[in-house]
Write a structure and sequence with these properties.
The protein has about 250 residues and is of the alpha/beta class. About 40% of the residues lie in helices and about 15% in strands. Strands 1-2-3-4-5-6-7-8 form an 8-stranded parallel barrel, surrounded by 6 helices. The longest helix is centred in the last third of the chain and has 18 residues. The structure holds 1,3-dihydroxyacetonephosphate.
């Protein structure tokens, strides 16, 4: 019912040349895939070059961030409108690295979600708890706030252009994946929140991805869970063979 999504977040990696090389390998190996939506998110400077390589393939291009205005006096920023112009179909928003390193608030992220949707792009909204929040019992409260504020003032119709990515901060880049039970528990909780904020159909149709040390050897078990609709992959998305194996998971 929900089409799975496997997205690669390349973070701050790869020159234009290197990004083109990886994109070519992925198009070569994944051109036949129809079961799953495939998204890759290179750095800004590589977007137009990678867009040319992805043209005509099933792979879609995403950016890793944006500013919540279309144009204007915002030195150093980039807008959804211009990212769309560069070939993007989606934007990753509220990644924990931006929340932590750049102090992005839920309110700012909500404005970015609105601007992204207004430009006709898909918003991939990231949320997740730190280890301290999980251990202190604050996890569900934190996730509720991130989701409620992040999705504030959206309509059910707009929610069809939103993908949620649950990325526990303690599992990102650490090699520690959440267990399938831990991930499923939170995914089901998030789906319940979406139902409460919108309605049953919106919750049923909302894709919720898991992110945090997703690798070829754990993707199959994760995808077997009812509420895990795909993955947002960091490190393993930089290696063509690993990313392709993740896209071609067996569930
Ligand atoms: P890793 O897969 O490297 O843990 O990164 C996850 C992530 O942050 C994807 O956005």
């Amino acid at each position: 019912m929900r089409k799975p999504v496997i997205a690669g977040n390349w973070k701050l990696n790869k020159t234009i040349n290197e990004a083109e090389g990886l994109a070519r390998q992925l198009v070569d190996k994944l051109h036949h895939v129809t079961r799953t939506e495939i998204i890759i998110a290179p750095v800004f400077t590589a977007l137009p070059a990678v867009a040319r390589i992805l043209a005509g393939s099933p792979l879609q291009l995403a950016a890793q961030n944006c500013y919540p205005q279309e144009t204007g006096a915002f030195t150093g920023e980039i807008s959804p409108l211009l990212l769309k112009d560069a070939g993007c179909k989606a934007i990753i928003l509220g990644h924990s690295e931006r929340r932590q390193l750049l102090a992005e608030s839920d309110e700012l992220i909500n404005r970015k979600v609105h601007t992204t949707l207004a430009s006709g792009l898909t918003a991939i909204l990231c949320l997740g708890e730190t280890l301290e929040e999980r251990n202190s019992g604050a996890m569900f409260e934190v996730l509720t706030r991130q989701l409620k504020v992040g999705l504030a003032k959206l309509t059910p119709a707009q929610m069809t252009q939103v993908i949620i990515a649950y990325e526990p901060v303690w599992a990102i880049g650490t090699g520690k994946t959440a267990s399938t039970d831990q991930a499923q528990e939170v995914h089901s909780f998030i789906r319940g929140l979406v139902m409460g904020l919108f309605n049953q159909a919106t919750a049923d149709n909302c894709r919720i991805l898991y992110g945090g040390s997703v690798k070829p050897d754990n993707i199959d078990a994760l995808m077997a869970e009812d509420d895990i609709d795909g993955a947002l992959v960091g490190g393993a998305s930089l290696k063509a063979n690993d990313f392709c194996r993740i896209v071609e998971y067996q569930a």
